Amino acid sequence: MTNSTSDSMDGADAGAEADGGAPRETPLRAEHEALGAAFTDFGGWWMPVRYTSDRAEHTAVREAAGLFDISHMGEIFVRGSQAGEYLDFALAGRLSAVKVGRAKYTMLLAPDGGILDDLVVYRLEEQEFLVIANAANREVVAAELTTRADGFDVTVTDGSDDYALLALQGPRAVTILDEVVADGTISGLGMPLAEVKNYAWTDANLTPGEPGVDNRTNTDANLTPGEPGVDNRAKTDHNFTPGDRGVGGDGSAGGGHRGSTSGTTPLLLARTGYTGEDGFELYVAAEHAASLWRALLAAGESHGLVPAGLAARDTLRLEAGMPLYGHELSRDIVPAQAGLGRVIPADKRGFIGEPALEPRPQARVLVGLVAEGRRAGRAGYAVRQGDRVVGEITSGALSPTLGHPIALAYVDCAVAEDPEADLIIDVRGTPIRARLTTPPFYRRTS
Amino acid sequence: MTDHLTTLQYTAQHEWLEITDDIATIGITDYAAEQLGDVVYVDLPDVGSMLTIGEAIGEIESTKSVSDLYAPVAGEVIEVNEEVDANPDLVNSSPFEDGWLIKVRVTDVAAGLLDRDAYLAMTGSGS
């Protein structure tokens, strides 16, 4: 038996090849090993691909919750008096319009409009943003952001090595986090969890320790988020910032409800994710990642929470129709081709990548494909109409939730515009009939 | 490790085979099943087809990847495991028992087959 089709996540590794040497490890490597994880090299990182079963982990996220270690993602801070207008120039979106406390999906474009990476950017303060890059693209993003900062009053700091990132995803994510708040592991929330909107974040504190230990002595700030209706996000004393991690104090100890308590460490808690479910992403100093990981797993155990690996993450994001860099997104693709033209405001001008606004009439566009049976088209497989090759699959799998094969593919425009198109996926010589659909393939109901 | 596994022969491509008289039962190993992840589809040769040593005779498709199955013997396929067609996850849950793949009336056997210890050493699983 020999692997004839490599793991469909490999495409994202492209940027890591230049590094050579052994893959990097996250601060949670020992936790994963203790849980019996199988590992894979992903984006130059040694990452857990599964703990028990891809499908069991996938289903847990859809029905209960899953906990992912995504510490391989890059955290790059942009600070300075011109941070907003600088990011408007350097990135595809209009980041200056993002309010403090909110986040935005955006892209780093090449001068010709090709995609160098897709990003989530958090506005931490009026003059401070946190840019989240894909693991394999971290160096490219940091270097481009630094180069593009020339002439602006901003500083670009790659803080990736200092932070771990955990993703708690699934319909029971709020319930599980509420328990961790109740036991005092997470305290000092800027607002109640339920009020953290989609693509928003809040500060909190983590009291590192073993799960089960009663940390309640530190929770005075815990459930007192302030007056209802008062926007706690308009503060500029957030405690999650490079340089003073672990210090705890932020000079505002008497000034409000989010000041760190001695013995705690800052946590950034965001309602973002990559699975199509409700969920949160939690940024914490690397040395406290294991403490948070254990606390979340312990609190979630009775709610069906399981640790989940990259294999489940990939099928979840595919069902949700979310693009993956190295598959749906690349240097040769402009956002509109990927159905993501909205990342550039139509009236935006004067930014790097502006040619992406011009139509590329002959360019293939991203579509969804569904088929019967159990044999899935995979990345790189041809899509045919009769004998003519009209496209290529970028990601494909047997959907664990839907039970039939799904795929994302770039196809000729004329094909994409014909909803009745009779298409064939060439599955290693076997023709599989497929039809067009508009992603997402799966949409959560609640 | 059960005695049963020590009597099996193994290929470097992660097939196992058990030859009784001139009938070989063939499957993939626990290590291969673990590496593949959840198996969702198995494509096997038809009963009656003639196998040549080293040729690709089928496919094992998991959630994340696709692998070819290679013939470790020459001969005629006399039985395929219909249960695996209906329940591909048998390859994960019972790779050496219920998850067997095909039975072949053997005319020749590949050179260089491994015993359990050599196979475990090759996969880095220890012996």
Key attributes of the depicted protein:
heterodimer; A: 446 residues; alpha+beta; seven-stranded mixed sheet; 8 helices; 22 strands; globular; B: 127 residues; OB fold (Dihydrolipoamide Acetyltransferase, E2P); three-stranded antiparallel sheet; 9 strands
Short description:
The complex is a heterodimer of chains A (446) and B (127). Chain A is α+β, with helices and mostly antiparallel strands.
Protein model, in words:
- The complex is a heterodimer of chains A (446) and B (127).
- Chain A has 446 residues and is of the alpha+beta class.
- Chain A is built from eight helices and 22 strands.
- Chain A is 16% helix and 29% strand.
- In chain A, the strands form four sheets. Chain A has a seven-stranded mixed beta sheet with strand order 12-13-14-15-11-5-16, sandwiched between helices. A six-stranded antiparallel beta barrel of chain A has the order 17-20-19-18-21-22. In chain A, strands 7-8-9-6-10 form a five-stranded antiparallel beta sheet, covered by helices on one side.
- The longest helix of chain A has 12 residues, at 289-300.
- The model of chain A is unreliable at 6-18, 211-236 and 243-260 (pLDDT under 50).
- Chain B has helices at residues 3-7, 30-36, 82-86, 90-93, 116-123, and strands at 9-10, 15-20, 23-28, 39-43, 50-51, 56-62, 66-70, 73-80, 102-109.
- Chain B contains five helices and nine strands, in the order H-E-E-E-H-E-E-E-E-E-H-H-E-H.
- The model of chain B has no long low-confidence stretch (mean pLDDT 93).
- With 127 residues, chain B is an alpha+beta fold.
- The A-B interface holds A 1-9, 38, 49-50, 53-55, 311, 314-315, 374-376, 378, 397-398, 400, 428 and B 11, 13-15, 28, 32, 34-35, 37-38, 40-41, 43, 59-70, 88, 92.
